[in-house]
Amino acid sequence: MQVRRLWAAVAASSMAVVGAVAVIGLNSTAEAAVGGTGTGYLSTRGNQIIDAGGNPVRLTGLNWFGMETDNKTFHGLWARPWRDHIDQMASLGYNTLRVPFSEDALKPGATANSVDGYTNPDLQGLTPLQILDKVVAYAGTKGMRILLDRHRPTSAGQSALWYVSATPEATWISNWRSLAQHYANNPTVVGADLHNEPHADGTDPNGTGSCWGCGDVNRDWRLAAERAGNAILEVNPNWLIVVEGVSCTSGGNANAWDNIPDEPCGWWGGNLSKAGQFPVRLNKPNKLVYSAHEYGNSVYHQAWFDDPAFPNNLPAIWDGFWGYLEKQNIAPVLVGEFGSTLQSPQDVLWLKKLMEYMGTGVTGMDFTYWSWNPNSGDTGGIVADDWKTVNQQKQSILQPYLIPPVGQTGPTGSTSASASASTSSNPGTVSCTATVRIDNAWQGGYQATITVKNTGSTTVSPFVITWGVPSGVVLQSGWNATVAQSGTTITATGPSWAPSLAPGASVSIGFTANGPSTPPPSNIKLNGVACT
């Protein structure tokens, strides 16, 4: 069970770390597909992440943990094929995977365990890093991005500082450089979340944990992030450097018994209140992304949950801890972890307010939800204990804010959905193939994916895909396109960020609807031409 720790009390946590890495050769030249994650390597401009062409990108993803634990690889590989996990994530609209890992998973001789041989025979005998390579390669074909998260120095647990006796700072930096070199030619892997949830230890004024701006070389997380970030950029200048906050900027927990006013403290990794005054200084400033963690009352009871103005008091709290960095155009903020079981009505209000605060569309704040896994003890997951059934309550809140990936739906390589060929609106030049997949069904509704491939020789721009549904089926939501319904016809129009479908390219349109899933959608057409 994953548990999360907070600044004020022993609660719990669920992240991981990176270790000594044996560099393995990897064919990794394919670029990420056009869409929610853009093309090529990522950088920043003001408070926006941008792709290689300068186009705005929004990372809207989730965490898939396990590499930070004793299993040393992704959880759920005992339950279903590994590709199925990624297929479902992409079909739901998540474009990024934050991958927690620990030092132990990447040491020479590390062995992955709890991988079912019948379900995942192709993973048998592979090292944790080799399994990660396969996940990276396949996620890239979906147009997804990967963010590596050094979650723990060992699988035994998290640490307040970025180093422990078994993993000194020099080892931490060396291991990051090895990972950066390992994925240097693969733009699917976008960067390094340097250390998960640095936080206070001891009590103020005698704190021994991570501080921000205190100037102590052994405790100032901001200075350590500069050392590691610049060392990584020396070997891989294309990576984003993701720097989390602390909990209490002094590095010591609040002491309620000394009658001395205490500084505001936040979640572990969630306090960036001094990053404006003491910014992280990288040799490549356009590679810096700040990151905060944020949780609901059921995870730990913070004082602000008692405010009579809740949840309308929350935006001011977030502004002070990390939101100001985006609002003042200082740097992008990635909310790297947030989640809840949503069993408490108060948590539902919290999550809805947080999503509203981060904003819609490609210019909204970046985020990775905690977590895909159902076995996170304090939050549960997007999927239930069967590792397949979607928690519709969570998904329906997150769905309007997701920027789905755009990529090929098979493992044959990444396909750009943008057009380099000439554009045509003449339906006579169009041909296509189509498939329908019912991803999930429940009493009174279902979720499906329509995949269309342009088999013609001319780019279709903008693409317009239509399909028929039985009378009584009512569209509820759609993604990867602008989706609307008229009578028994549903129309999906290419979105502004990826309006074109090039020859040989595929696009997958996901949607949910009320009504029966049988008979399934039919009569699929691309710009008026029936697909086979």
UniProtKB/TrEMBL annotation:
SMART domains: CBD_II. Gene3D superfamilies: 2.60.40.290, Glycosidases (3.20.20.80). It catalyses: Endohydrolysis of (1->4)-beta-D-glucosidic linkages in cellulose, lichenin and cereal beta-D-glucans. GO terms for biological process: cellulose catabolic process. Its EC number is 3.2.1.4. GO terms for molecular function: cellulase activity; polysaccharide binding. Residues 425-532 form the CBM2 domain. Residues 409-429 are annotated as: Disordered. It holds the Pfam family CBM_2. Keywords: Carbohydrate metabolism, Cellulose degradation, Glycosidase, Hydrolase, Polysaccharide degradation, Signal. Residues 1-32 form the signal peptide. Belongs to the glycosyl hydrolase 5 (cellulase A) family. This is Endoglucanase. The lineage of its organism: Bacteria, Bacillati, Actinomycetota, Actinomycetes, Micromonosporales.
